[in-house]
UniProtKB/TrEMBL annotation:
Keyword Cell membrane applies: yes
Membrane topology value: Multi-pass membrane protein
Residues passing through the membrane, by range: 31-52, 64-81, 87-107
Descriptive protein name: Murein hydrolase regulator LrgA
Predominant location: membrane
Keyword Transferase: no
Stored PANTHER family: HOLIN-LIKE PROTEIN CIDA-RELATED, UPF0299 MEMBRANE PROTEIN YOHJ
GO MF term set: hydrolase activity
Localization per record: Cell membrane
Domain of life: Bacteria
Organism: Oceanisphaera arctica
Amino acid sequence: MKLIRDFAVLLACLMVGKGMATLLPFSFPGSILGLFVLFFLLSTQLIPLNWVHDGGQLLLRHMRLLFIPVAAGLLGYADLLSDGLGLMISSALSGLVLILLVVGRLYQRMLS
């Protein structure tokens, strides 16, 4: 019964987020807005953490299984992904280096 309540709260936050996304004049993922709604409710303690803890733990424990359909769908685009693989790797590495440089510089400025 506790898991049903946990999933009901999580699903309600998701539905509220999707409803908010339809009202926005631009495209934004409703699931992200649902996470913001859940964060707001938990941080203001309108919903106690124990109402979503066990359901969230169950979802986190089985997250690998939830990503299998996404990974299988990506296999359909293997040729497209292999064409841009070099660009994706270089952009990820350059972004990593840029972030490290900026964070390092900010840390040095904070220390002095």
